[in-house]
Design brief:
Largest sheet: 7 strands, mixed
CATH topology of the largest domain: Rossmann fold
CATH superfamily of the largest domain: P-loop containing nucleotide triphosphate hydrolases
Oligomer: single chain
Order of helices and strands: HEEEHHEEEHEHEEHEHEHHEEHHHHHH
Radius of gyration: 22 Å
Low-confidence stretches: 358-364
Distance between the termini: 63 Å
CATH class of the largest domain: Alpha Beta
CATH architecture of the largest domain: 3-Layer(aba) Sandwich
Number of domains: 2
Number of helices: 15
Structural class: alpha/beta
Length: 364
């Protein structure tokens, strides 16, 4: 079993939605296509196979660090294959490998069928933008499209802190410096402590994982910079609650004040299969931090935010997941089965759908 053979096989299927390759001892290599796992016809992987693969994708220092920490994240580029985000881990006493294929072409906001509001956010002068969702929901791709929009349209100094670097940017109207944790800096927090001396206009933090990184990120956004980052939260309400929960209780009101002053918006992602079976499309909740949203953050009434998002669709271009899914269904991009199983409130979705059909019948 050779790694280049697996890459070649995956490459032939790449245009059909292959995103990940999973390699573990005792199981044939497994691909993820449009969110679903596909077992390849290859023989089960052996420990010798993986040991040989590790020598291909790591250098001596990385392999030594992996054996010490039992975990490793690596970003690599391979000729004729492209950019890869590799995670190496141990399971049942054997190393295992998870590989994410990263497109060398950065798709635009329009190509990804993302809300146009992201263009406005990308050109903002200061504040905090958060992209949230589960692993594999499209967060990195979404932020890459925003940064590339900046790169093509305005002159900015963009600094990214990533673990590892995924999309590779080429300087156009902006200059984009990409720093990788473990190679160019020791940690997200360490990089952020010194970043203001690097004259950034926009800072992208690959992921906010701890209190220190969250604290410095909020302060960076509050000093007149645009900071973009990700969180593994499901929606805007959970995102705000998670941010506040990073801090001890006696700081909560201060953090609410800081968050209300800096937050521009939250986009939360889910990828749904297209009706024609050709891939997936994002369903997005979009929260714009309006004065009413700020009021709920300050007063700790985040449970009221979903209703405000729903009512802000017309004037502020906000939308709930259910509104996004309804729009995708009405455009015949997703099936009824996918829609009804993806919405937050199936009964309410059914009632609204019945009302729409009744109105259309009346119009005829």
């Amino acid at each position: 079993m050779k790694l280049d053979e697996l890459f070649s096989f995956a490459k032939t299927m790449g245009k059909e939605g292959i995103s990940d390759l999973h390699i573990k001892v005792g199981t044939p290599p497994v691909l993820r296509k449009d969110g679903k796992l596909i077992f390849t016809p290859a023989p089960p992987v052996t420990r010798a196979d993986i040991d040989e693969m590790l020598l291909e994708i790591t250098d001596e220092a990385q392999l030594k660090e992996f054996k010490r920490k039992k975990e490793a994240d690596i970003g690599i580029s391979i000729q004729d294959i492209g950019r890869l985000r590799v995670n190496i881990y141990w399971e049942k006493g054997n190393p295992a490998i998870a590989i994410r294929f990263v497109s060398e072409y950065i798709k635009s906001i329009e190509e990804l069928k993302l809300p146009s509001m992201l263009q406005n956010w990308a050109l903002a002068r200061r504040g905090l933008i958060l992209c949230t969702g589960t692993a594999g929901s499209g967060k990195s791709t979404t932020i890459a499209s925003m940064l590339e929009y900046v790169n093509q349209n305005i002159e900015k100094n963009v600094i990214t802190i990533e673990d590892p670097i995924e999309f590779i940017f080429k300087d156009k109207k902006s200059i984009i410096s990409q720093r990788e944790v473990g190679i160019d800096t020791n940690s997200f927090a360490e990089a952020l402590k010194h970043i203001l001396r690097e004259d950034p206009d926009i800072v992208f933090v690959g992921e906010i994982r701890d209190l220190e990184t969250m604290d410095i990120s909020l302060k960076t956004a509050d000093t007149g910079h645009l900071l973009v980052s990700t969180l593994h939260t499901l929606n805007a309400t959970e995102t705000i609650n998670r941010i506040i929960s990073f801090f001890p209780p006696h700081q909560h009101q201060h953090i609410r004040t800081l968050l209300a002053a800096t937050l521009l918006g939250v986009i939360s992602m889910r990828l749904l299969p297209l009706k024609d079976g050709t891939g997936r499309i994002p369903a997005c909740e979009v929260m714009v931090c309006t004065e009413l949203i700020k009021k709920q953050i300050l007063e700790g009434k985040t449970e009221l935010i979903p209703k405000i998002i729903e009512e802000g669709m017309l004037y502020y271009n906000m939308q709930t997941f259910d509104q996004s899914i309804m729009s995708l269904y009405k455009k015949e991009l997703i099936s009824y089965e996918v829609a009804i199983h993806s919405v937050t409130n199936p009964d309410e979705f059914e009632r609204k759908l019945t009302g729409i059909k009744g109105f259309e019948t009346h119009q005829l």
